[in-house]
Design brief:
The complex is a heterodimer of chains A (717) and B (153). By secondary structure, chain A is an alpha+beta fold. Helix content of chain A is 28%, strand content 23%. Chain A has three domains: 178 residues, Aldehyde Oxidoreductase, domain 4; 147 residues, 2-Layer Sandwich (Aldehyde Oxidoreductase, domain 4); 312 residues, Aldehyde oxidase/xanthine dehydrogenase, molybdopterin binding domain (Aldehyde Oxidoreductase, domain 4, 2-Layer Sandwich). Chain A is globular, with a radius of gyration of 28 Å. By secondary structure, chain B is of the alpha+beta class. Chain B has two domains: 74 residues, Ubiquitin-like (UB roll) (Roll), CATH 3.10.20; 70 residues, DNA polymerase, domain 1. Chain B has five helices and five strands, in the order ββαβββαααα. A five-stranded mixed beta sheet of chain B has the order 2-1-5-3-4, covered by helices on one side. The longest helix of chain B has 18 residues. The N and C termini of chain B lie far apart (46 Å). The mean pLDDT of chain B is 96. The chains are: A alpha+beta (717), B alpha+beta (153). At the A-B interface, α6 and α16 of A face α1, α2, α3, α4 and α5 of B.
């Protein structure tokens, strides 16, 4: 049954025009495909190692352990392997690696989590090694076939050559033998020998994304599949007390209801029927004190907590006496709200419990956690859980959570059919896992010469790790202080403290995590300090970055590329921000004006140093993607709580930017090379809000210290 | 029983009349290229053509499209050869790709009405949401189609 349902999926996905990355190759049976060098050509696909297979027709299939959620891993990671492999790029196709295999074979795919801008940053060395070892096997196989020394042979563009005798053989012809060989001590290339890395190759997944044939989790279609929708308690933490299934029993298509602690799922023949019935289902809830909370209460509590001592994160010297003798002290409080991820594809998961095990289909950033969570809930051994990782319609961190999987499995346990659970957009947005709310207080002391003589910072943040049950016993969630604890400016003495403060909402990874809120507050306060020191914001930053030549270089490049010193029309201004995260330095200048009380962002110039680039086209798209995501958050993003309920539940209330609001974006690379391969999925985001807010201050002469910007009616001073 | 015409083919379906066209396409006809994003005609992921007009199928009951020519992303071409699809490939527009069916259907409708849209025409017509932020390449792709077809006339 297990095999059967998987095959059904493949068959049915193929009917939707060719399927996606998931397909099988039909083994070649034609003996005429035997080659001139003898019958070494395999009749079937040959696996050179867990990362790649080669077909007799030279098709190379590369398995990608990270999930494609738009960031281009199905192209960039195969480029890394194919470069070492000396493959002909035209032969390469890509697919998601099989998580079940990684669990059965002791983590053969190493890190399968997608997050932390880590695809290239973390997996590059072992992907290069995998490609290089496969190449060596192919060369060795050809050399053995020819009876010549390996040293006389070399590989390029999908072939092995023996120069002396002008013989060559395709990878497809020697793959069968190569797969049986072993190699040791294989060295990877020097960067100057890269043949693919650094080229703007088109994405492999583009063609199927222009005709509707790409298969996202929600597009899985199985024989006899039912659909499920859910109604969660509107107050997070609330519980189901009772519900009246009889009220919806006779609605069209309704099959059954499944009770969770915090909501009820309704299963029906189609999703529309399921969702209509789920919305109509009368449910009585048990709601505690969390039902009395408001955004206003949270704000007051967070600001009050800023006045407490907090836990020391970093202390250099004594700030108190230094502040006492300061000529001038500035102090500011910053505040950011909870944010929803709002991926375009609402969360969904398809599950089928059979006698043999459990099958899951979804787009997940963390297939191992998804599989293990399902295994535990269903009481099925992990190796008997098959998980097909589909394309992700956006992720931004949200799709690493297992909540949707756990619900789908609970439903699948109650019905003898495959079932596809889809959260409506409203459920997706209201059901938690937000970017944390945070408040930050900064204080700086200056001497008579306007030099910084003391710096303190206290942050109060909803802890993601605490929500996840991870130990934060020392009072510090390191993800909450990213960008604050390691801020690069040389202020001394300094004191950085932190307080964890969680509410009844749940928080989760959101694109760039702590940097998303901390860079905003930090870089705005740096501008306030520059103003107090009556220094140009870029010059001020440079003054305190003397020991960071890499940051100085990026800032100087940005100063030039952004026309920092050129005049702008009246009412228009530039603001700057600088941040380092996930191994990458990014700095941005935003050009902004104010119209009808609102910020109008015209242009964002970025200078980025991620060390090396795999694919400049995808890399540029990632920086722009981070900017657009950050722009939506800076201008409009907020989750509002009233009586414990989340008010924003769809794109009419949770505004995100549209085509008409997109600024000109210019991305400049300042690549330092070497061993630095920084992440790119997130570093484009953190500087957006502070660069805009710093520019707005020049126009309005008022400091914005909370987000979103649309909370303010802006006026030219 | 309702009868609708999708991509040139007639289909007879047992479906409640208030079912939005989107769910008829996805759950009854397995035409999954048209996406569910919001259900309230805000995001445009579900955009299809109704007699050539771009329309948000999540908010149109099937009873309203019985006499209508419905075209979905699957009906644009059988081989990705529509000029807009080709432009999307050339500019490498999609990231996650989830919104792109709707973006392409909106762009096709715009270009059928206006062979050489200005930036503000694009702003006005292309109100579809993309969370990956592919907007710049979408604009570029639309202009590139306009330039190709413009050079023919």
């Amino acid at each position: 049954m297990e095999k059967l349902s998987r095959r059904h999926f493949l068959k049915s996905s193929a009917t939707v025009a060719g399927g996606m990355m998931i397909s099988f190759h039909i083994p070649a049976q034609d003996p005429s495909q035997e080659t001139m060098i003898g019958p070494v050509a395999p009749m079937t696909t040959s696996e050179l190692n867990a990362w790649l297979t080669i077909d007799p027709d030279n098709t190379i299939t590369i398995r990608v352990a990270q999930s494609e959620m738009g960031q281009g891993v199905l192209t960039a990671l195969p480029m890394i392997i194919a470069d070492e492999l000396e493959a002909d790029w035209r032969d390469v196709r890509a697919e998601h690696a099989d998580v079940n295999r990684s669990i059965r074979q002791a983590g053969v795919y190493k890190r399968m989590l997608t997050g932390g801008s880590g695809a290239v940053r973390i997996s590059r060395p072992y992907l290069q090694q995998a490609g290089a070892e496969a190449r060596e096997k192919l060369i060795k196989a050809a050399a053995e076939t020819w009876g010549v020394s390996r040293q006389e042979c070399h590989a390029d563009y999908g072939k092995v050559h023996h120069k002396a005798t002008r013989r060559s053989v395709t990878y497809g012809e020697v793959a069968g033998l190569a797969a049986q060989l072993s190699v040791a001590n294989v060295k990877i290339k020097s960067p100057e020998d890269f043949s693919l890395i650094g080229l703007p190759k088109p994405r492999l997944d583009t063609p199927e994304k222009v005709d509707g044939s790409a298969i996202f989790g929600m597009d899985v279609r199985l024989d006899n599949m039912a659909y499920a929708a859910v109604q969660h308690c509107p107050v997070l933490g609330g519980r189901v007390r009772s519900f009246r299934f009889n009220a919806i029993r006779n609605m069209p298509g309704v099959i059954l209801a499944v009770r969770f602690d915090n909501g009820i799922a309704v299963v029906a023949e189609t999703w529309w029927q399921a969702n209509k019935a789920a919305k109509a289902l009368p449910i009585q809830w048990t709601i505690g004190d969390e039902g009395k909370t408001h955004s206003e209460t949270f704000r007051n509590e967070y600001l009050a907590a800023l006045g407490t001592q907090g836990t020391s994160v970093l202390k250099q010297g004594e700030t108190l006496p230094a502040l006492e003798v300061s000529e001038k002290i500035i102090e500011s409080d910053y505040l950011v709200p909870y944010l929803a991820h709002a991926s375009m594809e609402p969360l969904n998961c398809t599950a089928h419990r059979t006698d043999e095990g459990l099958s899951l289909w979804l787009g997940t950033q963390d297939p191992e956690s998804a599989l293990n969570a399902a295994s535990k809930l269903a009481g099925v051994a992990p190796e008997k859980v098959q998980l097909t990782n589909c394309l992700l319609g956006g992720g931004f961190g949200r799709r690493a959570h297992t909540d949707i999987v756990e619900e789908a499995v609970q439903i699948a346990m109650e019905i003898d059919r495959p079932v596809q659970l889809i959260w409506s957009r409203e459920e997706d947005m209201r059901s938690g896992r937000y970017r944390p709310m945070a408040a930050m207080r900064f204080k700086a002391g200056f001497d008579l010469e306007k030099q910084v003589v003391a710096y303190t910072n206290h942050s109060v943040t909803h802890s993601i790790l605490r929500d996840l049950g991870a130990p934060v016993d020392n009072g510090i969630d390191p993800t909450s202080v990213e960008g604050l604890s390691n801020m690069p400016y040389e202020f001394s003495p300094k004191s950085i403290t932190h307080t964890i403060k969680n509410t009844h909402l749940s928080s989760y990874w959101w694109r760039s995590v702590g940097s998303s809120q901390n860079a905003f507050a930090m870089e705005c306060f740096i501008d306030e300090m520059a103003e107090a020191a009556t220094t140009d914001p870029i010059l001020f930053r440079k003054q305190y970055l003397v020991n960071r030549p890499d940051l100085l270089e990026v800032l100087e490049e940005l100063r030039q590329k952004s026309d920092w010193n050129k005049r702008l029309p009246p009412g228009t201004a530039r603001g700057v921000a600088l941040h380092e995260c996930f191994g990458t330095i990014a700095a941005q200048v935003a050009e902004v004006s104010v119209n009808n009380g609102k910020a109008d962002v015209h242009r964002i110039v970025s200078v980025v140093n991620c060390g090396n680039l795999v694919n400049p086209s995808i890399a540029e798209a990632q920086i722009e993607s981070g900017i657009i995501y950050g722009l939506s958050a800076a201008l409009y993003g907020k989750i509002t709580i009233e009586k414990g309920r989340v008010l924003e539940d769809n794109f009419d209330t949770y505004h995100v930017i549209q085509q008409s609001e997109v600024p000109i974006m210019e991305t400049h690379w300042l690549l330092s090379g070497g061993d630095k391969w920084g992440g790119l999925g997130e570093p484009g985001l953190p500087c957006v809000a502070p660069a805009i807010v710093n520019a707005l201050h020049k126009i309005t002469k008022r400091r914005i210290r909370s987000l979103p910007i649309s909370d303010y009616y802006l006026q030219r001073a | 029983m309702v009868r609708i015409k999708v991509n040139g083919e007639f289909h007879e379906l047992e479906v409640e009349l208030d079912t939005p066209l989107l769910w008829v396409l996805r759950d009854h006809l397995n035409l999954t290229g048209t996406k569910y994003g919001c259900g309230i005609a805000q995001c445009g992921a579900c955009t299809v053509h109704l007699n050539g007009t771009p329309s948000r199928s999540c908010s149109i009951p099937v009873s309203g499209v019985l006499q209508v020519d419905i075209v979905t992303i699957e009906g644009l071409s059988s081989d990705k050869s529509h000029p807009v699809q080709k432009a999307w490939i050339k500019e490498d527009v999609p990231q996650c790709g989830y919104c792109q069916s709707g973006q392409i259907m909106a762009a096709v409708a715009l270009l059928e009405k206006n062979q050489n849209p200005s930036d503000s025409d694009i702003d006005n017509a292309m109100t579809n949401i993309c969370r990956c932020g592919t907007y710049t390449r979408i604009r570029k792709a639309i202009h590139s189609v306009a330039n190709v077809s413009g050079s023919k006339t």
